[in-house]
Amino acid sequence: MTTKTAHIALYDTLADWEIGYLLVELRTGRFTGTPWNVVAVAESAEPITTMGGLRIVPDQVLAGLDPADSDLLVLAGAAHWDEGGGSAWTDAAQRFLDAEVPVAAICGATAGLARAGLLDDRDHTSAAVEYLMAQPGYGGQDRYVDARAVVGGDVVTAGPDSPVQFARATLSRLGLASEQTLQAYEDVFHRADASAYPVLMQAH
Questions:
Q1: Cα–Cα distance between 200 and 167 in angstroms, integer?
Q2: β-strand 155-158 against 149-152: which pairing, if any?
Q3: Which of 10, 122, 196, 198 keeps 20 to 30 A from 80, CA to CA?
């Protein structure tokens, strides 16, 4: 079976913690039994520096990214989203969605998708509806869901305080684990519920 691939958007001030849970579960497959390739993509070949100060060298550049070669695009928060930037990445998200490849966006990345009109016709969430309503071009308030993470067709969204729920929702959208396993995952990593750990360990 061909190993599936997740492409991770890289840019300076990337919010490390927001996508950490998801990346670990995708790459290791430790609770799904299905390891994925994790490929880092940036607008140039130069290293980026995350919000936590880690320097990361991209595996490839955005110009060469074809949704046909991917199974998921992951967009983390970063300073540029709140500065009105990120259009290269929302253009990429549009290409992925046109190709019916899922896009998972958290924190500021949801603002970028909102500005691009990519949330108007899908259920979604973010830090708060007011945050998205402040974005020019956003018209999706009727589809806003007050939840930690939301799957709206091919788009997964979450606020900055919900990295575990973001991972859970994305794994659910990808069909990588049962709801029982995903509930146990959230119980362990969000609620520190030790009683859920045996369920998680029996996942696959």
A1: 15
A2: antiparallel
A3: 122
CATH code, 122:
3.40.50.880
Give dist(CA 43, CA 34) in Å, integer. 29
In a domain, 129, yes or no: yes
Residue numbers annotated as active site: 107
Coil/strand/helix, residue 121: coil
Model confidence pLDDT, tens digit, residues 48-93: 999 999 999 999 999 999 999 999 999 999 999 999 999 999 999 9
CB atoms within 10 A of CB 115: 20
pLDDT digits (tens, 9 = 90+) for 32-48: 999 999 999 999 999 99
46's CB contacts (< 8 A; 6+ apart) are none
